[in-house]
Amino acid sequence: MRKRSHRPRVVLALAVAAALGAAGCDAVGGDSPAPSATAKPSPKPTPLWDRSPSSVAAVGDSITRGFDACEVLSDCPQASWATGASPEVDSLAVRLLGRAGAAERSWNYAVTGARMADLPGQIAQAVRRKPQLVTVMVGANDACRATPAAMTPVPEFRADFEDSLRSLRKALPKAQVFVASVPNLKRLWSEGRTSPMGKQIWQLGICPSMLGDADALDSAANLRRSTVQKRVEDYNKVLKEVCAKDERCRHDGGAVYDYRFGTAQLSRWDYFHPSVNGQARLAEIAYRTVTAERP
Which parts of the sequence are annotated with region: Disordered (predicted)? Predict the structure, then answer.
């Protein structure tokens, strides 16, 4: 008997394969198109935190104004940790923007003597510049009152800070915020009381709730200082909690509060405010926080 030819089967198989190829089927199955050799990868999402912002505005109190860093009882904004041009300080703005960039795209709206209640007004000024980064250092004056009873209540402190961030966020939804903790005032008293000149300056009214009667160590004086210190700790808790609710806000994690300022970091005119050296240390803390990969 003659063997049948397999040619028809081969032809049929080739025809089916051609049909499947024309229909776009591949090894993956289904109707998915074959991968393109020229397909571009999806762009990475823009991070919420930009570690190299192009402009900086500072708000806060006398520390950010460089008070007593250069001359007695005077502001010295060129020595400000946030925006100053002093090469000895190497401010946050200079580190981020370069010296020329800092001169053009950084602004200091801090006011000596300012409290948290003044922050909304400073924020209103700052947002007009549309900064990419706003630095906040405020709270020391809320604790530095004539007496502990006159200190800003914690609920008011919280409400004013929340109001400030809401105003900022409404005007500049993508602006970043760096929040510094309030310094350890009791440690500043401990360091500064070693200077007779510093104590004379304190009598002019610098932080009387903490620095008044600097040499007194009786129970009443110790209770007064502990009360002020506890309020500072409460303020720092508020700053951290409120900042944590804003995805574009970074708190220093208590770095300023924890920093052990020595006499070299304190003004030689009042032994309370940061010296030029102290301002440089604050700039380091801020830069480290702002440029960290994660808060």
Answer: 29-54
